[in-house]
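Sanity check

After download, print the first record. It should look like this:
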Amino acid sequence: MTDDPFVTHRRLLFTVAYELLGSAADAEDVLQESWLRWAAVDRSSVREPRPYLVQLVTRQALNQLRTMSRRREEYVGEWLPEPLLTSPDVADDVELADHLSIAMLTVLETLGPAERAVFVLREVFDVPYDEIAEAVGKTPAAVRQIAHRARSHVDARRPRVGAAVSSSEHARAVEQLVVAVNTGDLQGLMDVLAPDVVSVADGGGKVRGAARRPIIGAERMARYLVGGLAKLDRPYLASIAWVNGQPALRMEVDGEVAGIVSVEVEGGRITRIYSIANPDKLGWLDEEAALAR
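Expected structure tokens:
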């Protein structure tokens, strides 16, 4: 039935679950479980389906977060969010694009499950405190305290830029990176990388050559990239793709997607690099994700 509230709000519910989990595959699992629970609910007892469904998905996502935290303890190397192919239109909602970014999702990983749920529901989706309280099993007063604590935590760790970086400035930096990678231009890489750039890679222990610890410094990073590309014995191509609401570098090897590189930009130069090459995390890059808030 197309008038089922779950179907009507599915884009919103997926976005909530993805923001809470940083994984599209896990977000889909949460939606499947939530749908089964929704199917068993007496609809006549639900006065407002939208907040009810957001609360339902949040509770399932919190359960999933606890399961995922055990998986993360065994993860090989750095853990980064699962990238999503998004429409360029997502960037028009600046606040959503900011919270969807790989950089912000990585910061959200440093919050506990309840803190993350409260922060996301309040800051991204503007859910009232009393509705958040029902979703996380806390009092509204406790939720206000958690929200304040989570906001301070995120503000201390979120990307620092002197002024808001325009999407065109971000895109120019990614374009320079794409050209330098495709040509193996060491100097071109040095020109677009900030001197103190930090690079974090997620290969999940499944990708040869993926650094398991952060690489710091433009020269080290440029030489690492050029050296790695020189060792490839198959054709590769870097291109620009819209990922998590921002322009990013998409790397293909032999015509197959091999990785996504998301960046932070300040003053026209790349200050932080997030490289996601774990093949298990590259399954959501062929079709634009349907998002809403």
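If your output differs, re-run the checksum step. Summary of this record's structure: The chain is about 50% helix and 15% strand.
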